[in-house]
Design a protein that fits this description.
CATH architecture of the largest domain: 3-Layer(aba) Sandwich
Shape: globular
CATH topology of the largest domain: Rossmann fold
Helix content: 25-40%
Distance between the termini: 39 Å
Order of helices and strands: EEEEEEHHHEHEHEEHEHEHEHHHE
Number of helices: 11
Radius of gyration: 19 Å
Length: 316
């Protein structure tokens, strides 16, 4: 453990193979929240898994999840316009449709439930007995009071739950945030009943946005994303834990995520060409920009080459 700029840093070995050997891919700042610090992505020399190393310990990292962080603030219904709320819930509706193709009732746990937007849609059917886990205290309290269901304020790694107690576990854009993602996949396996389902979404390293934007790709999201999985390695990990992958698909890539990558890329221009950056982002965020990108993003999803990938897996 080292201390620098009042932040506590720790070195970590590869969680999958245990190797401490790595190559440095790139260094970068917090491009989303623009909080101070420089962070490093490395790739394991032995197995190829990407991780942050060194990384902030949890007490320091939590400072990079402010209350206005997009996973929280965008779903506080009374804080946003009805249109914005509808857009975010439309994304959750697409995820719900994906889930309903395989399972439509039972005991569900959402890890990283945020302010409860997805669980809200499940509860509307009256077929689910729902639970949530959320590390952000404000978001956990908000969802607990609004949905009137058990929401545990804590980290998945530390929460104690009974084995075989769920039929469905959901982790939308959570795995990459975890200090021990493989351990958490094993924990999800143990918490699922026989034949239970696991749905999760991750940044898709093999998608076209990652290839185009490189270190500016929104999927890296330093310092919050601690691990990024090559898809072939993730398949191997899930199989060895005891999951069978049923489907891999892109269902929730969109205009906003691509906008983050464009913003991160053009941040390099701010000091030299601020007006160009401002104009480009204004055009992209306009109605014209949304319409112009609608069809290419739809095609990307259908070809499974978008910036996020959803995995549907079942406990063998």
């Amino acid at each position: 453990m080292i201390v620098k700029n009042d932040l506590y840093w720790e070195f970590c070995v590869c969680e999958w193979c245990g190797s401490s050997e790595f190559t440095v891919e790139f260094n970068g700042p917090d491009r989303l929240e623009r909080l101070p610090g420089t962070f490093q992505i490395v790739q394991c020399k032995n197995c190829g898994l990407f991780r942050q190393n060194p990384r902030l310990n949890w007490d320091s990292l939590i400072k990079f999840y402010p209350s206005e962080y997009r996973s929280y603030s965008n779903l506080y219904k009374h804080h946003v316009s009805n249109f914005k709320y509808f857009i975010h819930q439309f994304g959750n509706w697409k995820k719900k449709q994906c889930v309903n193709r395989y399972v439509d009732k039972g005991r569900v746990l959402e890890v990283g439930c945020g302010t409860g937007g997805f669980l809200e849609l499940l509860l509307q059917t009256g077929e689910w007995h729902a639970f949530g886990i959320e590390p952000n205290e404000k978001a956990a309290l908000f969802s607990k009071e609004r949905l009137q269901i058990p929401i545990i304020n804590g980290r998945f790694e530390e929460v104690e739950l009974s084995r075989s107690s769920f039929d469905l576990i959901i982790m939308w854009y959570v795995l990459e945030h975890l200090e021990q993602p493989i351990l958490c996949l094993q924990k999800a396996y143990n918490l699922l009943d026989n034949g239970g389902w696991l749905f999760f979404s991750i940044p898709f390293l093999e998608g076209w946005e990652a290839r185009l934007f490189g270190k500016y790709w929104a999927g890296w999201d330093l310092p919050r994303h601690l691990y990024i999985f090559p898809i072939n390695m993730l398949r191997q990990i899930l199989n060895e834990i005891g999951f069978q992958i049923v489907e891999e698909k892109c269902i929730s890539s969109g205009h906003a995520i691509l906008g983050h990558s464009i913003d991160f890329w053009t941040q390099e221009w701010e000091s030299r060409h601020p007006h160009i950056k401002e104009w480009l982002m204004r055009v992209y965020l306009s109605i014209f920009g949304k319409i112009f990108t609608l069809i290419p993003l739809y095609i990307s999803d259908k070809l499974t080459i978008s910036t996020t990938l959803t995995i549907v897996a079942r406990k063998k």
